[in-house]
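Project outcomes to date are best conveyed with an example. Our students and postdoctoral researchers have been running inverse folding experiments weekly, and each run begins with a structure described purely in C-alpha cells. The record below, which covers 197 residues, was selected by the lab manager from last quarter's runs and is presented without edits.
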C-alpha cells in the first residue's frame, strides 16, 4: 500500500512528489533558466535601445515591413500606453519592488517553465527600470526609450514585449495547473485503488 500511495503522487513529468529532495534537485535548473533568459533578453533590450537612440530621429519613422512595422523613436515618462506621465518616480519605485518580488519567486521555482516565464518578466521590468534610473532628464525620473510601432498600437520596446510574453506564459502555466514549486500532479487514484483491496 505504501508503494502504491507513493507511486500515485507524481509530477506531470513523472517525478515522485513523495521524494522531498526533488524540488531541491530541480531548483538549480529553474534558476539557471531564469538567469539565462533574463540576462539575454535584458542585453537585447538595452542594445536595441542604444542603437535606436543613436540611429533614429524622433518624428521621422522608418518603415521596416511596410506600414506593419515601423521604427519611431519616442521617450515615455509614464507607464504602458503613456499613462501616468507625471508619476515617473512612482513607477520607478514600483518597478524596483516588482523586480525584487520576481527574484523572490524565481529563487523558489522548481519548474523550468516558471524559470523561463519569470526570466521574461524580470528582463522586461529591469529593462525599463534601467531607463528610468539612468536616462534623462534625471536619475530615477528618466524616460523610457520606445521605438517599435505597429498599426493602431502604442510605440513600445523589447522590454515591453518581454512583459507581454511573460504575462501570457504565466496565464498558460496557471491554466494548466503548473505550480511554481514543480509541475502539475497527476490525479491521485490511490483511494480508488484502496477501495478494491
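After processing, the design step wrote out the following sequence:
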Amino acid at each position: 500500500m505504501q508503494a502504491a500511495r507513493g507511486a500515485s503522487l507524481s509530477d506531470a513529468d513523472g517525478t515522485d512528489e513523495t521524494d522531498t529532495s526533488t524540488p531541491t534537485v530541480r531548483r538549480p535548473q529553474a534558476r539557471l533558466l531564469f538567469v539565462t533568459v533574463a540576462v539575454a533578453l535584458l542585453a537585447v533590450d538595452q542594445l536595441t535601445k542604444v542603437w535606436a537612440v543613436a540611429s533614429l530621429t524622433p518624428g521621422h519613422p522608418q518603415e521596416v515591413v511596410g506600414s506593419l512595422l515601423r521604427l519611431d523613436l519616442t521617450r515615455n515618462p509614464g507607464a504602458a500606453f503613456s499613462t501616468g506621465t507625471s508619476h515617473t518616480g512612482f513607477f520607478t519605485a514600483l518597478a524596483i519592488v516588482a523586480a525584487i518580488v520576481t527574484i523572490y519567486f524565481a529563487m523558489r521555482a522548481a519548474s523550468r517553465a516558471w524559470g523561463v516565464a519569470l526570466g521574461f518578466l524580470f528582463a522586461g521590468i529591469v529593462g525599463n527600470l534601467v531607463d528610468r534610473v539612468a536616462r534623462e532628464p534625471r536619475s530615477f525620473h528618466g524616460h523610457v526609450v520606445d521605438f517599435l510601432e505597429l498599426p493602431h498600437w502604442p510605440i513600445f520596446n523589447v522590454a515591453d514585449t518581454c512583459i507581454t510574453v511573460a504575462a501570457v506564459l504565466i496565464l498558460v502555466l496557471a491554466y494548466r495547473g503548473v505550480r511554481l514549486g514543480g509541475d502539475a500532479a497527476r490525479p491521485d487514484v490511490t483511494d480508488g485503488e484502496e477501495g478494491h483491496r
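Residues 132 and 142 are 4 Å apart (CA to CA). DSSP finds six helices and three strands in the chain. The training component of this project remains on track.
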